[in-house]
Amino acid sequence: MTGEGAVATLPAGYANGENDMDGATTLTGGCLCGAVRYETRGESFLVNHCHCHSCRKNNGGPVVTLAGFKASQVTFSGAPRRIYNSSPGVSRAFCGTCGTPLTWEGDSGSLGAIVELHISTFDQPERLVPSAHAFYSERIAWFDVADGLPRYSGFVDGSTPLRHGPADEGLPTTA
Question: What global pTM score does this model have?
């Protein structure tokens, strides 16, 4: 999933990280075992839920939540991350020790090289608030997220959303 398009909007007064002395927002995170660490500087350009087949396959879950940054905003430290080239122009990084999926990386066009980090790998993931769903048309029919966010057929790119809020069809019912 690329992060082209919409900018994440936070509720008024909600901090999106800690501010450094120069006023830049920094967030930190890493893998499960702590071997790979990262730091981001500045605001994320997008935080969204991705339902695409390749993100779900990479993550092992029914949806993935990613926070997008320009590659120049992200610094990795500790053990070198392992890279899997999942498709032309797209790579995914993970920890070679514990296997934690860390990133989706590619070129977004207007923003250049980007790194989208798995939100659950941040030390304080609650500081990043999703603003949309991408590739909603590829979602698993029995799964949805109970929120009022716009759902896009593909990338979150300013096009008209398919809908706002969860689906009414395909979800399991209780007897």
Answer: 0.82
